[in-house]
Amino acid sequence: MATKNTAHYFWLSVLLGTSLTAASAGAQEGSVEAGRTKSATCAACHGVDGNSVTPDWPMLAGQHAGYIVRQLEAFKNGERTNVTMKPFADMLSDQDMLDVAAYFEAQKPAPKGADPALVGLGQQIYRGGVPARGVAACIACHGPQGMGNPLASYPRISGQHAAYTTKQLNDFRGGDRRSDVDLNQMMRNVAGQLFDDEIKALASYMQGLN
Q: Does pLDDT of 163 surpass 80?
């Protein structure tokens, strides 16, 4: 199992053109049971099962393990800044990251809904982009139901809190979030072309995907 996992992360790092610290050669496979214990400190914000009750804090239930590891590394190395997450990420070893990520990936996300008044615009941009401004359709990377693509490091965004997604898109747009360096600044390029009402509609639409 460890060999299979190492190979998986090796090819993921090749695809992304980067070296993933927690997925380096010899890293062990993440353990759901170990992650259950190690994630205890995460529960205060993200919920025991990764279903956070506060919309400002992201849902982690069902998120791809590789993506969670990559974000923890980003908080740890400074590519992504957050005064709350930084000290927690600093305490985690490579194996801790793999275990916590495996645990949250195994959890079932709680379904949510979208604001009916925003569905039309949100769906239009999600599925068709904004051709006039060169904005690619979100569906191309995140899939019809927002399940993402773990091999390409595209996260699952279905059911994510609209408030959290709105902030992340705004952070990408303003350059405050730069954790898309492995993807040629894809998210910064896309978000930079979106208007406030479009971001709000997209975030709501994504929240309603299940």
A: yes
- The CA-based angle 136-79-86, given to 5 degrees, is 125
Stretch (H or E) spanning 37? helix 32-38
pTM of the entire predicted model: 0.85
What is the per-residue pLDDT for 61? Answer: 98
Distance CA 202, CA 22 (A): 32
Q: Where are the alpha helices (DSSP H) in 84-193?
A: 85-91, 94-105, 116-128, 139-142, 162-174, 186-191
Residues 6+ apart with CB under 8 A from 19: 13
**Which residue in 165, 175, 164, 162 sits closest to 204, CA to CA?**
162
Question: Around Cβ 46, how many Cβ atoms within 10 Å?
Answer: 21
The one-letter amino acid at 10 = F
Q: What is the pLDDT of residues 82-132, one digit of tens each?
A: 999 999 999 999 999 999 999 999 999 999 999 999 999 999 999 999 999
Instruction: Convert 61-97 into a string of H (helix), E (strand) and C (coil).
Output: CCCCHHHHHHHHHHHHHCCCCCCCHHHHHHHCCHHHH
First to last CA, the chain: 30
In contact, 51 and 187? CB cutoff 8 Å? no
| Averaged pLDDT for residues 8-27 | 40
Total residue count of the chain as it appears in this document: 210
What's the pLDDT at 183? 84
- Name the percent of the chain lying above pLDDT 70: 87
Under 8 Å between Cβ of 25 and 10: yes
